Amino acid sequence: xxxxxxxxxxxxxxxxxxxxxxxxxxxxxxxxxxxxxxxxxxxxxxxxxxxxxxxxxxxxxxxxxxxxxxxxxxxxxxxxxxxxxxxxxxxxxxxxxxxxxxxxxxxxxxxxxxxxxxxxxxxxxxxxxxxxxxxxxxxxxxxxxxxxxxxxxxxxxxxxxxxxxxxxxxxxxxxxxxxxxxxxxxxxxxxxxxxxxxxxxxxxxxxxxxxxxxxxxxxxxxxxxxxxxxxxxxxxxxxxxxxxxxxxxxxxxxxxxxxxxxxxxxxxxxxxxxxxxxxxxxxxxxxxxxxxxxxxxxxxxxxxxxxxxxxxxxxxxxxxxxxxxxx
Amino acid sequence: xxxxxxxxxxxxxxxxxxxxxxxxxxxxxxxxxxxxxxxxxxxxxxxxxxxxxxxxxxxxxxxxxxxxxxxxxxxxxxxxxxxxxxxxxxxxxxxxxxxxxxxxxxxxxxxxxxxxxxxxxxxxxxxxxxxxxxxxxxxxxxxxxxxxxxxxxxxxxxxxxxxxxxxxxxxxxxxxxxxxxxxxxxxxxxxxxxxxxxxxxxxxxxxxxxxxxxxxxxxxxxxxxxxxxxxxxxxxxxxxxxxxxxxxxxxxxxxxxxxxxxxxxxxxxxxxxxxxxxxxxxxxxxxxxxxxxxxxxxxxxxxxxxxxxxxxxxxxxxxxxxxxxxxxxxxxxxxxxxxxxxxxxxxxxxxxxxxxxxxxxxxxxxxxxxxxxxxxxxxxxxxxxxxxxxxxxxxxxxxxxxxxxxxxxxxxxxxxxxxxxxxxxxxxxxxxxxxxxxxxxxxxxxxxxxxxxxxxxxxxxxxxxxxxxxxxxxxxxxxxxxxxxxxxxxxxxxxxxxxxxxxxxxxxxxxxxxxxxxxxxxxxxxxxxxxxxxxxxxxxxxxxx
Lengths: 327, 545
Description:
The structure holds two protein chains of two kinds.
Chain A: H1 15-47, H2 64-93, E1 100-107, E2 110-114, E3 120-122, E4 124-128, E5 133-139, E6 144-148, E7 153-157, E8 163-167, E9 173-179, E10 192-197, H3 199-208, H4 216-226, H5 229-232, E11 251-253, E12 259-261, H6 264-272, H7 295-307
Parallel strand pairs in A: 1-5, 4-10
Antiparallel strand pairs in A: 1-2, 2-3, 5-8, 6-7, 6-9, 9-10, 11-12
Helix pairs in contact in A: 1-2, 4-7
Chain B: H1 13-17, H2 22-50, H3 61-96, H4 105-127, H5 141-145, H6 150-177, H7 190-222, H8 235-269, H9 276-289, H10 305-333, H11 342-365, H12 367-373, H13 377-407, E1 409-410, H14 413-440, H15 454-484, E2 486-487
Antiparallel strand pairs in B: 1-2
Helix pairs in contact in B: 2-3, 2-4, 2-15, 3-6, 3-7, 3-8, 3-13, 4-6, 6-7, 7-8, 7-9, 8-9, 8-10, 8-11, 8-13, 9-10, 10-11, 11-13, 11-14, 13-14, 14-15
């Protein structure tokens, strides 16, 4: 632990040193101006204190060179802050290629995380040190926010959207995570711990603690049959809807001639608003599942679809442009 | 004291409730905003006591959430937004421009009644189940999931919005059409310029928040899908609409306080304000650019990177006119004849606190930094520095400055200076620790918190008790002074504005004869009527003005 009264939280991710450096820079500039102006005010306050009851001040009306100076100099400093902040922000929003993908579902008032192998945790998140981790965030009800102060990362979890965030833990340990978007009664209790482990420990943990929890691939397969997806999305591509084999990560050719990457957001949208993006060569026949599936069920379906290996030579082309571009 | 003035011209409860005198309406507002200030203050007190221990000291989570929500709603919509404009603005704008009243005296009274009706709805919400959505009313929490009395609250704020709009309209028309002979635009007091800018924001922004909250109410009552994704709505749309008003609303709160400061500083330095036209112009610039920065409240909602870059850039741009004001106020002190009267202490305290509030805005406007400090106590500290350190210091300072004009009486000077210092110290003790709490990662709106945050929370609560004393003292001696204070006379400071050219308290028609303005604003040199040693300044006059 740090001293009794620390000024900044632990630095445990790739972002933390950059954010703290930025903080230091802006603090230094602001401290300079705050002190300079305060000193000036206090100095004038005493120096020009009224000695005689009827004295008046010197009538000085202004100086346009001074006005220009104190517009231009602060503007330059402000632009430096803006620029540096933008650089750091772009890094936040630019997810690297090889990530460990973890799904996080928020609901009043708990967090569920799903590891790549389907292992689920509640109010806990285990990640390996040194690996780029990407979280895909979904909410079952209101807006929540996933916030890890030690990583300096934060992202809203908005119902109806998938938001993603990424970070690279740099230091093993246990760190608080919080819900930082007010979400109702037990908002303050909606937190937990991120455990950053050595890669070998993480691998052991991942294989050793798959308890009785249902595998999401199995759950997804069951849903796929229950909701009758299977009647149209036939695996060999002969159905009324495109085959989903090998879909995930591929480029999909749409009816309007454009292409889209079949990622989580695309799969989710295609389930909830099927007519938003029609695959080339198919009719908009699919009904909407808006309001009929929970985020957890959508995630199970996505995980199942992800698990479907590419099948050789799908008939009708199936709209998949270049399966080789799979992640 | 004059024999007849606006306070004793007529008597009886009807003469107050049916008055169209802007000065009496200002006093009606003074009583009602003070009432809401104490309601909001009571909630704040309970919040600070509750946070003394990590597990929460006083109330259940439900109650805590209601406390901070009702604190915010009472303070923002029913105290801060109307405080300076509806009390001081109402009283002073006609007097400052040499008019007998506002352009629409009956609409002015109507504004107050609308405010009271809106206030009743909100009090009804507080009394019957309370409100636990946060003052921001984010959907779908407010429109679907909350079990508290959201509907009467949003209706109350919707209704109250019209009060703001009408007040703003009244000010704009009055400033355009009712200026006395010789009162050109660039002879207007900066208080009037600030209120003109504020009124623009009120008239253009308030309808948006009123409609937005109404839509949230309709979604709640009739399940119309505007913001609820389960009904095909988008919760992010709510945030865009809400902040389109609620960011400019910050300028509704701070611009009038800047106006007050721009009056006090030249008066107590007895010299023209430095850079009049830059201060006037910066008020308008803040009002205009302030409309273009709203999505900086939404950097972590998943908005596009380009949107984030644009709004961050514009947020830095809007900082410049505020900086211009601070530099000009400071320069005004140079070679002044500075007195240490109470209003001056408030004005300088305002600059100090607004400086910290404004500078910490630069941290939040910074994209890379905002991700970490967004929705933490850093934000809480920042906006309290602006709204309490800035707007409330300006309001209390303004009350002290114009109290002799409003009541005709002086308050005890030594006690009031002491209270100003207590307020300044108490405020910093309360809110400065919250910047550190925020950077350490304590999220806002938490009824319980990890034990490592306790020390700073205890400090903050200790400061709040000092702050409370700083508010109660002026409350007590100002009321005392109405009966026992020394008679002030027309112009006790003396100040240069037109409002000081008439009796204290003024007659109902403000001026016995319509004044004619022949001097420049804040001019002490060519004003023999002020009875000062004009022409004998501390040093030779430089030729560059």
